[in-house]
Structure formats: structure tokens, C-alpha cells
Amino acid sequence: MSSSQHPESWHAALHRLQRDGIPHVLATQVTSAGSTPREPGARMVITDDAIFDTLGGGTFEWQTITAARGCLTEQRYGLSLEAFSLGGRSGQCCGGFVNILLEAFPGTTTNIAIFGAGHVGQQIVKLSAPLPWQLHWYDSRSDAFAEQYQQQPRLSCYSLQDAQQSVAALPADSHALVLTHNHDEDYALIKTLIERDDVASIGLIGSDSKWASFEGRLKREGYSADQMARVRSPIGRIHDTKLSNKTPYAIALTVVAELLWLTDTPSSQENRGLDSQAVRTLMTDSPTTPS
């Protein structure tokens, strides 16, 4: 198995991975019977390419890592229970039994691309900080990103030099917001974004007249009505009503609220916790044993 053991403790790794939105599994030893490498309460954290802390090593730990990575690969998020006989399934000489609770976390799956680091863009980034989104922030000005933003989790800042190159680098299903300081930049970005079929949504800041001007240019350049219909402009319009408060903070609030609705997709898999029989077995004196 290809993986690297890190010196970081499981609780430090758990905090960092959850903060940064990286998929991971927390493995907790919940029962033990007979001779076992470690006692209940031992924990380790597992990602696709790293492990943090240990449950005692050996084949049993290798099998735990394999099971955890299987959850990540198959996107089986939530709780599951693994049982190990250290003399049977795991082929170890301890001869005991352990139950391991796996808690698989999906990490951040929503990507928001913000083109423009002006007043509204800054407020959008601040308001989005507690939300489980990966933010990709672009601006063509060399001094656009204040130092305070460099420490914000799940935020990456990029220089916007070429619209085609920047848009091509976006992850599939990204939600894009176009609000640069330059109308020509805005237009180049909109034109490039509507050419990507896998962009989840496209929003443009500005007035109705700005969008009417863009729409006319797009028509003259041969873009279809369906492509142009993908653009929401102005962004943050609630119930098709214009907001009278035009401060950057107020606009950002409506934009983030709009994004919450756009990104609020139901989970593909419902996990309601452990099977009740497995829980009842854990509450007895005998550990759950492999079938």
C-alpha cells in the first residue's frame, strides 16, 4: 500500500483536514477483547495518500487503512463499523478482537470562482469563510490580495492574466462570479465561461444595461441564446427584485445567499448512522466478531 506516515497527531490532522475541506476518515478503536495492540479510544486519521497516528501497526492496521480508503473511493460517507479478529482475519499473533468505528468525511466538494478582488469580492470572500466551499479568487492587479486573506482556509488566490487560461483551470461544476474592475475583463470572462458546458453557474455583477450591452456583443459574435441564458445578471437579485441598498456588504450578502441555494444539492447517499444491531452488540460484553 502506498502511503506516508506523518508525525502530526491525529487530532491536529483532523482539525486541519476539516478546516481545509480535504476528504478523510477518522478511525477509532471502540472495543477490545483479549490481547490487542492498543486499547479502546485509540485513533488514527487516514486520507487518500497519508496516515496520521496509529492503532498499533501490523496487518490489522493495514486492513483498517484499506477499509477507510475504500470509503473515500466509493464515496461512502458517514459511519461504518469494522470488526477484526487478530488471530483470524488479520493473521496476527495477539489473538484478540477489536471493533473499529470509521467516520468518513467528504471534505469540500463545492468550488466557487470569484473573478475580481474589489470591494464586493472582498466581502463575498469574508462572508464565505465559514462555509464549506473551496474559493478560487482571481484578479489582474498585482496588489489586489491583502495579506489577511493568505491565512483564510479553503481560499486560493491567483493572478488573472488570461481569461481562457484561468477559466480552463477551474474544476468542473464550479460556480463562477464575474465582478472585476474592468468591463473588458468581465466580457472576456463571460465569453469564455459560457463556452464551458461543465460550469455549474455563471453570475455577472452590474446593471441591466451592462448585461444588455454584453448580450448584444455576444449575439454579434455568434453565441446562442442558450449559452447567454446561463448568465445571471445582476447577481444577488432576490425574487427578481432590485436591492435598494447598494453597499458592497449588502450586495455580497445577497450573492452568498444566492450561492447557498445554487449549491444546496441533496446528498447522493443518506447515512443515518450505524446499524442498530451492531450498536446493540457493542453495548454487550462481547465484541462484534467478523462473520
Automatic annotation (TrEMBL):
Q: Where is this region: Disordered?
A: 267-291
* Residue ranges of every copy of the XdhC- CoxI domain listed in the record: 18-77
* InterPro entries per the UniProt record, alphabetical: MoCofactor_Util/Proc, Xanthine_DH_XdhC, XdhC_CoxI, XdhC_Rossmann_dom
Pfam families of this UniProt entry? XdhC_C, XdhC_CoxI
Domain XdhC Rossmann spans what residues? 113-259
UniProt name for this protein: Xanthine dehydrogenase accessory protein XdhC
Which organism was this protein described from? Vreelandella glaciei
What phylogenetic lineage does the species belong to? Answer: Bacteria, Pseudomonadati, Pseudomonadota, Gammaproteobacteria, Oceanospirillales
| Gene transcribed to yield this protein | xdhC
